[in-house]
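Can't attach files on this board, so I'm pasting raw text. These are the components:
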Amino acid sequence: MKSLDELKELREKSLKSIQTRSTDNKPRIIIGMGTCGIAAGARKVMNAILEEVKDKELDIVITQTGCIGMCEKEPLIDVEMPNKPRITYGHVTPDNVKEIIREHIINGNIVESLAIAKLES
Amino acid sequence: MERSIYRSHILICGGTGCVSSGCKTVKVALEKSLKKFNLNHEIKIIETGCHGFCEKGPILVFYPEGVFYCEVTPEAVDNLVEEHILKGRIVEELLFTEPITNKNIPSYTEIDFYKKQKRNILDNCGKIDPESIEEYVATGGYESIGQVLTYMSPEEVIDEIKQSGLRGRGGGGFPTGLKWQFARKSESDKKYIICNADEGDPGAFMDRSLLEGDPHRIIEGMIIAGYAIGANEGYIYVRAEYPLAINRLQIALNQANDYGLLGENLFSSGFNFKLQIKAGAGAFVCGEETALMNSIEGKRGMPRPRPPFPAENGLWGYSTNINNVETFANVPYIMSIGADEYSKVGTENSTGTKVFALTGKINNTGLAEVPMGITMREIIYDIGGGIHENKKFKAVQIGGPSGGCLPEELLDLKVDYDSLIKAGAMMGSGGLVVMDEDTCMVDVARFFLNFTQSESCGKCTPCREGTKRMLNILKRITSGEGKTGDIELLERLAKMIKKTSLCGLGQTAPNPVLSTLKYFRHEYESHINEHLCPAGECKDLMNGYIIDDEDCIGCTACSSVCPTDAINGERKEVHTINKQLCISCGACVTKCPVDAIDQA
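---
Top answer:
Structure tokens for the assembled complex are below.
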């Protein structure tokens, strides 16, 4: 180790390895993984999200939840930006994922065409 | 190629406590289960150091949700993965249940055991993989040594440590900055830094958990100390009974060497530092610094007179600075937040936090880090969850065999170096053994003296012969053959041994006897004068048990546990104990739902 800069570089590189363990002030994607969600293809959506997050090098929380009662609209995903209301998207397909992540997570705009509910945080 | 994004991390506790409760088999089951559900590419398993909550092991924490599962069995793993990871449902039956409110608590931070703690030094334990230097660096590790070597002079480092008020965490509580200053000023061709990891107190495991859970923190603290006093070489003296700690420490040393965080010209400052592990054979006396140095030199682990102190004449005759594991663990933290901020926690003369190992008759056995100045009551009841099986608290032994027993009247005593000394105990390394109403205090004194007696190295007469005499008297009292004058004789011997022994082992060995005599003298007296053990623990003093015929409800619980079939009686009728057959084991007493059984 030659300098503080070199250490800083190593730290930034290493931060990725533990970022999943902190949830403070991060955007969250919650995927409905009840039986209904899984049957409607939630796993494929989950995989697409993981791919996209890796691709764009995003630091966000990806978590799952059980059935919330709107089985008809599955696969459902919720997106919650820090200190913003939680938006539910319905009938999400792996193809929609890119758009949701780009528009909502990166640019901060709700994708109106897919959004079906809003939950005040 | 490892995938860089895992949506979830499962942290499995790999401390010695959880290893013995079976975390390894749980880990194997978990790996298998993730494969089975085809999740092994999106979920990462990390084996961490001790979470501190050893009572409830094996412990698993699921991130990002931070859900805390305890007492997980290999059989429960499949369901846990399917429910939590696949379907997003929390598995209620594996959550922690608060002993007082009977509530299930999902989140780590909401559990009472953790809420009252202040985990500054244990922060990484249970959060990072101790075998990965990258994870330590990611939490800000090695930043302190980088700053120190880039911007500070050794004198400035010593001043900072002095100002922080840090005192030795190994027992005596000597100001660390002052100790470093002595070593700095001492003239010597060569200097050494030693980390004393010879943790030997019965029931103490703070240092082991730190070494297992966050080894790089200790290494960083030692490099800072080395720079401060001008030492280029260091030893970590750790007992061979800590194989996991040694293993993780060795991995950490190799990683630090690979990254050039140990070795030559660290941070281009011209400062060199190398470190090695010395495994000790586990003699208690080697926790004494001069005996420890003898042991490193390959000699018999026996103490030598002080002065000269190690700062002047230490390892191989060179100036040496010895600190305890927890003391070193505080150093990078102090340098990163600054002395002023550090000294805001704790009391005026005891700053910062202290890690305690909670053991004995307490609900939440484990490791707890608390601010200095907290009361014993808060540690035992709020963090420790109170006494096992709702029994009555009797005493707490603090400071191991060198410390003392504190009674209930002192539960509100503030825990810091000076008030503990005043009360006849000492901080020691931080072992807390909690005792309930069924513990005989004379027997406790006998237990600790038996320990120090067999660990006495035999070099000086007061310790070698004196502790043996004291132990014989205690054995006599607990076997019902105590004589008038025994108490006075114990006191005389104790004072003599304390005054004349060569090292700390002998000087503190009588403490458990003196403190139990101070607070529980009546128990000694009733053993000697009435041939009675009030707690019912000394079997030689027992005359069996009797059942109160007014209280007995005839439930038959007692007769079903009696190992000698000494209890007779029909269901719903009063039971009686046959005196000839009763062996005073007390099994019936613990079973009786109406407390109808008493000593005869």
